[in-house]
Amino acid sequence: MLVKEVIDIIEEFAPPAYAEDFDNVGLLVGDKSTTVTGALITLDTLEGVVDEAIEKNCNLIISFHPIIFSGLKKLTGKDYVQKTVIKAIKNDIAIYAIHTALDNQYKGVNDMISEKIGLKNRQILIPRKDSIKKLTTFVPNEQAAEVRKALFNAGGGSIGNYDNCSFNLKGEGSFKPNEDANPVIGKRGEVHLEEETQIGLIYPSHLEKKLLQALFNAHPYEEVAYEVNALENENQHLGMGMIGELETAEDEKSFLERIKNQFNCGCIRHSELREKPIKKVAVLGGSGSFAVNPAKAAGADIYLTADLKYHDFYKGDKNFVLADIGHYESEQFTKDLLHSYLTKKISNFALILAETNTNPIKYI
């Protein structure tokens, strides 16, 4: 397989269109046309990870965090970022970063954390609003089923756990082909009335090009009439963080002790405990201070995240606990998630979990 073909599989799972604006996802180093000898899956790409890739004959590194985050003006090897990039280039190793494109997926980073904790009835904590569009088109009645099927196959008409969703209205369409037209139905220079079906369905915005191509290919008319509208609806299967419930309520200290052991935390910093059982839990892997208020508003008993600052902990109260379990610790299982997904899709070469520990934080 080529690097490009692997990227296509990754981006089917986590479309880069849904990465945050500040992020730098995608192919950061390398040539898409390179044949892959093996892929190393890691949380971070550092020099040691590149060395591991060389040792294991992997010329593609699939990384959660991007090694290049802001612009590089020079490549002199003066810092760890430049040294890593130089070594990767010298050894013809491509680097792909997925980061917040995966953070925003329902079956992404936070679902993995929730699964480890044992949360039920899971929902996105901060659903996205800018990711759903609606397509409306008009098709002769006899071809309506064929066009609907093509749109469904292209990814349109999915709402949560339901697919093949559309709304259809019967009506009468009119058109007059001019002298340059090549009409399938009707005659040049004459007004034609046709019994048509109006098909309306929603779709994720990143599939728009694919969906419109399917429409044009399946539609019988020379000129296809259609409308595209952006919707303000929240996407319940896309967004940051997750909230769910424990099967059985747990004592606060026992719960935090369990989390510390499960995630191998050097320590857990937390706000004052409430002396109440934990039942509803909000999570957000990585830096999650921006979601403290949404977690609180959602009725979480406790919010597990990382990189909380001193003043963030003041937002805890008698009904709400904040707990910082560590950045690396909260995201460490992400590479297992990627490995599991890719092994189901790819059998052409080795997919290897990196053994290099990239956590820069140590504990005494």
List the helices and strands and how they pair.
Elements: H1 3-13, E1 26-29, E2 38-42, H2 47-55, E3 60-63, H3 80-90, E4 94-97, H4 99-103, H5 109-117, E5 119-128, E6 132-140, H6 144-153, E7 167-175, E8 192-204, H7 208-218, E9 226-230, E10 235-250, H8 252-262, E11 269-270, E12 278-287, H9 292-297, E13 302-306, E14 321-324, H10 327-331, H11 334-345, E15 350-353
Parallel strand pairs: 2-3, 2-15, 3-4, 12-13, 13-14
Antiparallel strand pairs: 1-4, 5-10, 6-8, 6-9, 7-8, 10-12, 11-14
CATH topology of the largest domain: Udp-n-acetylmuramoylalanyl-d-glutamate--2,6- Diaminopimelate Ligase, Chain: A, domain 1
What's the CATH architecture name of the largest domain? 3-Layer(aba) Sandwich
Sheet/helix structural class: alpha/beta
Order of helices and strands: HEEHEHEHHEEHEEHEEHEEHEEHHE
Tally of individual helices: 11
**What is the radius of gyration computed over CA atoms, rounded to a whole number of angstroms?**
25 Å
- The CATH superfamily name of the largest domain is NIF3 (NGG1p interacting factor 3)-like
Q: What fraction, in percent, of the residue positions are helical? A: 25-40%
Whole-number mean pLDDT: 96
Please, what is the oligomeric state? single chain
- Low-confidence parts, pLDDT < 50 over ≥5 residues? none
- Main pleated sheet: 6 strands, mixed
CATH class of the largest domain: Alpha Beta
Subunit structure: Homohexamer.
Keywords: Metal-binding
GO molecular function, one term: metal ion binding
GO cellular component, one term: cytoplasm
